[in-house]
Design brief:
By secondary structure, this protein is of the alpha+beta class. It is built from eleven helices and 21 strands. Among the domains are: 155 residues, no CATH class; 54 residues, no CATH class; 72 residues, no CATH class.
Length: 433
Amino acid sequence: MKKTKFCLFIFLLLILFSCNNNTSTPENMQKSYVPIFKTEVNSRGLINMVPDGNPFTNMKDASNIMTSLPLMVGISEAEGSFDSLTQNLSKQDGIGDLGFDIKLDSANSKLLSDGSSFLIYNVYEDNQQVGFIEYVYNPATKSFSYRQSVMLTICMKMGTEVVPILVSPYTVEYTNIPLTISNGIISYVVGEYKDNSFIDNGIADFIMLQYGITKSLEFQRQILSSKFDNGIYYSVYRPTSFIKKLNTKEAEILDILSTSTNNTVSTLPIRTTDQAKAMKIDTLNSFIKYAYKSGEKIVSHNYSSFDDFNAASIKEYNFESEANINADFAENPVCYDTINKKTASAKYMDPTYSPAFKYILDNYDNNNIVIQSLPGLTFSNDDNFGFPHFGYTLNNNDESTKRAFIKKHLMNCGIPVGAITEDFLSKYKISLQ
């Protein structure tokens, strides 16, 4: 009898061990890294970019940060089953640090066939969906990919009226970005320089429908070099960025606008905030399908694996035959301290106006700066564009000091000094004479 009881005891132990072991299998329990969208609640958004209490000091900084960086303000470590992960992330729904109402779409977030975790978020403005965010993390390679797309309808006061001054579907994409984790600090580089060439895995695209109060039919592609480290983002547009004219596509563009807004918008430029608010997720999705070869796949949000997500990239677009604009492209150097809510940037408002580094260097010591492409807009420059917070100094006006300033930012963006040759600098058209 004792022998029988002992065997039964061993049998029960084996069952218990087996059950406990099954609850910690990779399918149920794994370490993951997930996006962060808020460190505290504040407000800013597509229509009102600079209300009281936000981390941006003026329209210049708000525009620069939003059009260079993702809506996520970091990445954090998480451990547990995928179900528990999505439950916890759902509790974080709400206004993110950059002022958009971001909510996890739990129903369409899922584990992919290769064990990667796919998360999708809906982006809202004034209780209507205006965009989405897709994030997929591959535990096998400790890499992530990220895609966000938002229907931008930025309005501001011009004289006595509030009018739309920038109307554009806007998409940021990071593809297959390795994470570096050291002493609990998570960092990553986008547009890395490796083996004597840049990896083009960071893109920021505008399908520019309107700039200022005039129509501006352009496809603007910014190629990014960016770095996130210890809570601080650094970013710059590389010289390979370009603009294509879409004037021959005007009839097709107007048809998309009219169809997706129930005829609320059928002409350009957009005149009222009501028209701006009529362009939401349907308009955005229509333009994604129109602009990108993988557009149908992207708006379906249906991916089977990490590689499948990466293959559905915005990299291939449908405007190859359109004419390029021969323009000096603003580099848009920005810094954003997500912890202390500090920003530094050059003017961005018109990306074809002038090289942004030159704009900083020419105006660094001026008491006020003027957005020349939007007459009448003047901002205080008491903080020297915000760069002293990030350790940038410009103590004199000689060429070597100016070049050191530029090189410091490029290196902060993850570009090694060996890549910052005279030829590379000359492509920014910053020959300081």
